[in-house]
Amino acid sequence: MNIRDFDKPLIGILTLSATLVLAATAFAEPPKAGSSSNVHQRAVSSGSKNTTARTTPQPGKVITPQGEVRLTQADALKTIANRPEVKEWKLAVTNAAKKGRAVTAHIEIDRKEGEAYVVHVFEVVPDDAATSHTATFNWYYVNERSGSIRKEF
């Protein structure tokens, strides 16, 4: 027997072994910090197109075990904070604070309703040394699947 008699079967076995190791590590990848979902490799449907699955989600998104792409709370907050009207409002609050008003701007996830993160954009206005109240700029509903935004008013 010659070593060349084993070349083809050995290469096939090594290739198969390498493929199995790569597949196993793709499914054993630990979730990202702050993410509650495991990331799996499978077909992902995005709108009307099917795309090739990724083993890691896009920034600001998670992939559920079912292969669905979803926005995170942090991404919903960033999306609202970057809206032109919210930037303008935040600048006005910051300018008022610079002129001596003790107001502070806040953009927070208030709750989740169905598939939407409810984002509260408001300022805290002091009444006196001991009390304050909130003044709501707007409420935004950010759909975690589609990324669509609905304003309350």
Q: What this model shows, in words?
A:
The chain is 29% helix and 31% strand. The strands form three sheets. A four-stranded antiparallel β-sheet has the order 5-6-7-8. It has a two-stranded antiparallel sheet with strand order 1-2. The chain has a two-stranded antiparallel sheet with strand order 3-4. The longest helix is centred in the N-terminal third of the chain and has 21 residues, at 7-27. It is α+β, with helices and mostly antiparallel strands and 153 residues long.
**Quaternary assembly:** single chain
Radius of gyration: 25 Å
Question: How many domains in all?
Answer: 2
Number of strands: 8
Main β sheet profile: 4 strands, antiparallel
Q: What strand order characterises the main sheet? A: 5-6-7-8
What is the overall silhouette?
Answer: elongated
Q: Write down the overall mean pLDDT.
A: 72
Binned strand content: 25-35%
Helix content: 25-40%
- Provide a count of the helices: 3
Q: What structural category characterises the helix and strand content?
A: alpha+beta
Summarize the helix and strand pattern as letters. Answer: HEEEEHHEEEE
Q: CA-to-CA gap between the ends?
A: 83 Å
Outline:
With 153 residues, this protein is an alpha+beta fold.
